[in-house]
């Protein structure tokens, strides 16, 4: 029954109606803005590039996890606490207990993913909103982190991780850079600047691609592939869209949700490991507010807070906007406290825009 | 007469002290539309949920194609060829028609951990099956939210038929629809019946039941009031049975037969 009242839809309009639309516009606006106000401040020189790319990559790593979980219809507010917890656990195991770094990292991952599973099972079994359950874990994990850190070292910062992890094969996956030779060559031929003085004279200002960025890109590709291309991705959408309807056609909704909680914990741990390897230390207050920053990236990226709709690419673009704005204001010499004002404003605009786009898609009025 | 695909014998269902079903017998044959009528609270929902594996009967037996069965979950019922289309839970509006159509049974290609959904096949089958039901989609990627209520029901019916349903339970498919959409859904039911599938059509609208039903069973307060064959019963008699007799008769005279 073709309805003569339906207007033919142009391919342009069709291409436009997608979850990432808002984020794509946002990226263009943000880059245009900072090219104008901070174009000559070094923000778009190689070192500047690396600066905001690293920050964006940090956001992207946790945003991918938060994105898939939100599309599956749940939240995780314990991401930030999990970051602090994972870092401190890994540091205690390597520095205090003298475990080899690879073993400490593997155990940390196992513990944190297990905690993610507990989060998920509690939400499923009790039927409570994940907001409440993970809020409890936000406090529980932060408290445990501080307590464990003081108990073992009498302080809240545990240093010496880099020395302890020196030459470890698994630690190298989280710290350091790749493509060193390529960047040295870029420096040698003059495509990027090199240091002219000091111990690193002759070396390029950008050493290589930090592992953090490699992880971010890897997780974005994996998340996008999983969500958009696979059967499991369809189940993620279905679980968040309408859990009951999904159950009626045989989608294992509970399993999907618990796995997504575990994946979110995995992403938080990746973030924590990269941070610990970069700083060479762990601190009990790391990761503060990261859960909200992850959620903001996801929402800017076009996902619905109610679940069932969104995109990993959108979340990654949200992370890019976040990183560029945070570092760009610094390059532009703006008051850094304004960053939060800017962020809140973007958040509101993004949500309004996404609501509108969703109406276009579903034909709601 | 052909043997029934599914037979429910003296089904009872108790929820604590409440007797929701007090011995209901019901069967469906291939290629027929068996209407289950009843007012709100008569036990229709409990009965079809028992049939589709959501509830386990407290007493009574279920026989599918001659074999006695016990369903532990809706998946068991689906595996036995019993598909249910729920009125409001049939579709997820934010997802595309294709994604809804294949939900839970997505076709895959590739190997090992690198399997992906075969969207080319999924889209093609979806378009074809929808066209068979008389709905020409603009594109298989359009969100279900853009479809009308009747079209959504049709997607759900097409989905059940494509995946080999032998019995199709339709839970009030027409209750929220306009006149034109209702006609479309009823036409779909007729088409599905002709393909040899048994249909259980739950409704409280006698006129919709009379339009497509081959047999009619009325539930009232958890009990059946008997099964009638098409042509042996009038709409007025059905209406009376549903309401449990007299009260409505009084009403009807004042309403001039419009109910």
UniProtKB/TrEMBL annotation, chain A:
Location of this chain's protein in the cell: Cell membrane
Membrane topology annotation: Multi-pass membrane protein
GO CC annotation, single: plasma membrane
Domain of life: Bacteria
Function according to Swiss-Prot or TrEMBL: Part of the binding-protein-dependent transport system for D-xylose. Probably responsible for the translocation of the substrate across the membrane.
PANTHER family: ABC TRANSPORTER PERMEASE PROTEIN YPHD-RELATED-RELATED (PTHR32196), XYLOSE TRANSPORT SYSTEM PERMEASE PROTEIN XYLH (PTHR32196:SF32)
Name of protein: Xylose transport system permease protein XylH
TrEMBL record, chain B:
All copies of domain ABC transporter, residue ranges: 6-246
A family per Pfam: ABC_tran
Organism: Chelatococcus sambhunathii
Protein name according to UniProt: Monosaccharide ABC transporter ATP-binding protein, CUT2 family (TC 3.A.1.2.-)
Record has ATP-binding as a keyword: yes
PROSITE patterns for this protein: ABC_TRANSPORTER_2
Gene3D superfamilies per UniProt: P-loop containing nucleotide triphosphate hydrolases
SUPFAM superfamilies per record: P-loop containing nucleoside triphosphate hydrolases (SSF52540)
Record carries keyword Zinc-finger: no
GO molecular function: ATP binding
InterPro entries, A to Z: AAA+_ATPase (IPR003593), ABC_carbohydrate_import_ATPase (IPR050107), ABC_transporter-like_ATP-bd (IPR003439), P-loop_NTPase (IPR027417)
Keywords attached to this entry: ATP-binding, Nucleotide-binding
């Amino acid at each position: 029954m073709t309805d003569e009242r339906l207007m033919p839809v142009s391919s342009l309009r069709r291409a436009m109606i997608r979850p990432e639309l808002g984020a794509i516009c946002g990226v263009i606006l943000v880059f245009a803005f900072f090219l104008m106000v901070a174009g000559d401040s070094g923000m778009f020189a190689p070192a500047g590039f690396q600066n905001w790319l690293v920050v964006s990559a940090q956001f992207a790593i946790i945003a991918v996890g938060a994105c898939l979980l939100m599309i599956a219809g749940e939240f995780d507010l314990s991401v930030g606490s999990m970051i602090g917890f994972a870092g401190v656990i890994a540091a205690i195991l390597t520095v205090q207990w003298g475990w080899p770094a690879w073993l400490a990292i593997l155990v940390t991952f196992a513990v944190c993913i297990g905690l993610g599973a507990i989060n998920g099972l509690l939400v499923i079994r009790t039927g409570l909103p994940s907001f409440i359950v993970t809020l409890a874990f936000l406090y529980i994990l932060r408290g445990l982190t501080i307590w464990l850190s003081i108990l073992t070292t009498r302080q809240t910062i545990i240093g010496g991780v880099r020395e302890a992890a020196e030459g470890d094969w698994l630690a190298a996956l989280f710290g350091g850079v790749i493509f060193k030779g390529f960047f040295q060559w870029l420096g040698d031929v003059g495509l990027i600047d090199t240091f002219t003085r000091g111990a690193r004279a002759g070396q390029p200002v950008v050493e290589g691609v930090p592992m953090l960025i490699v992880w971010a890109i890897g997780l974005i590709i994996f998340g996008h592939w999983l969500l958009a291309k696979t059967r499991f991705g369809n189940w993620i959408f279905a679980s968040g869209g309408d859990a009951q309807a999904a159950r009626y056609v045989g989608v294992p909704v509970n399993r999907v949700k618990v796995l997504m909680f575990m994946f979110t914990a995995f992403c938080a741990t990746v973030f924590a490991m990269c941070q610990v390897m970069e700083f060479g230390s762990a601190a009990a207050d790391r990761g503060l507010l990261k859960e909200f920053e992850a959620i903001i990236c996801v929402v800017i990226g076009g996902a619905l807070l109610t679940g069932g709709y969104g995109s990993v690419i959108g979340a990654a673009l949200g992370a890019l906007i976040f990183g560029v704005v945070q570092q760009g204001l610094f390059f532009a010499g703006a008051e850094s406290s304004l960053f939060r004002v800017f962020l809140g404003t973007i958040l509101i605009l993004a949500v309004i825009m996404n609501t509108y786009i969703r109406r276009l898609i579903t034909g709601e009025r | 007469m052909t043997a029934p695909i599914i037979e429910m014998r003296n089904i009872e269902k108790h929820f604590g002290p409440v007797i929701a079903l007090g011995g209901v017998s019901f069967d469906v044959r291939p290629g027929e539309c068996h209407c289950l009528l009843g007012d709100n609270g008569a036990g229709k929902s409990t009965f079809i949920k028992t049939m589709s594996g959501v509830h386990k009967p407290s007493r009574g037996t279920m026989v599918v194609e001659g074999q006695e069965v016990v369903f532990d979950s809706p998946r068991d019922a689906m595996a036995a060829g019993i598909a249910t289309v729920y009125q409001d839970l049939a579709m997820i509006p934010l997802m595309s028609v294709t994604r809804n159509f294949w939900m839970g049974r997505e076709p895959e290609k590739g190997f090992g951990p690198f399997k992906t959904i075969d969207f080319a096949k999924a889209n093609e089958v979806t378009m074809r099956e929808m066209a068979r039901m008389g709905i020409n989609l603009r594109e298989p990627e359009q969100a279900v939210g853009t479809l009308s209520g009747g079209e959504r029901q049709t997607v759900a019916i097409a989905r059940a038929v494509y995946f080999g349903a032998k019995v199709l339970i339709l839970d009030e498919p027409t209750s929220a629809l306009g006149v034109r959409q209702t006609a479309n859904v009823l036409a779909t039911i007729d088409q599905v019946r002709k393909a040899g599938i048994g249909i259980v059509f739950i409704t409280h609208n006698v006129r919709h039941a009379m339009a497509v039903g081959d047999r009619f069973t009325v539930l009232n307060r958890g009990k059946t009031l008997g099964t009638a064959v098409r042509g042996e019963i009038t709409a007025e008699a059905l209406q009376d049975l549903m309401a449990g007799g007299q009260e409505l008769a009084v009403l009807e005279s004042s309403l001039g037969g419009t109910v």
